[in-house]
Amino acid sequence: MALDRNHYIGKVLSGGYRINRFVGSGAFAYVYQATAPDGTICAVKIQYNLVADARTRFSREIKVLKELPANDYLVKYYSDGITPEGFPYLVMEFVDGTTLKEALKVKSMDFSINSLPLAKI
User: Fold this and answer.
1) pLDDT by residue (tens digit) across 79-113?
2) Could you tell me which of 56, 72, 82, 109 has the fewest CB atoms within 10 Å of its CB?
3) In a domain, 88, yes or no
């Protein structure tokens, strides 16, 4: 089944996350603004590209986001699951603003290891 980007708007995912509006898309997932059961605005990323490599990458993204300690440089992980149609999804903190792609058009960023804000061990 091909997933139309508007399919989930107005629907409620398991856990009570209501999809409000489409925000954007990437190589293998659509991103939506949603409302959690407690009223918190959050982001829901639903994978639409189910080829093996995309599934592996999305699963890895969820695993890493779940395991990393909370900090100011990452969105907060809230939940994940599978839609009734079989599409994996990730629920995380919603950050309103520009996309990384748009930000990089304005200013280049240094992604070298020395530029990253890492904790000293």
Assistant:
1) 999 999 999 999 999 998 776 667 667 766 666 65
2) 72
3) yes
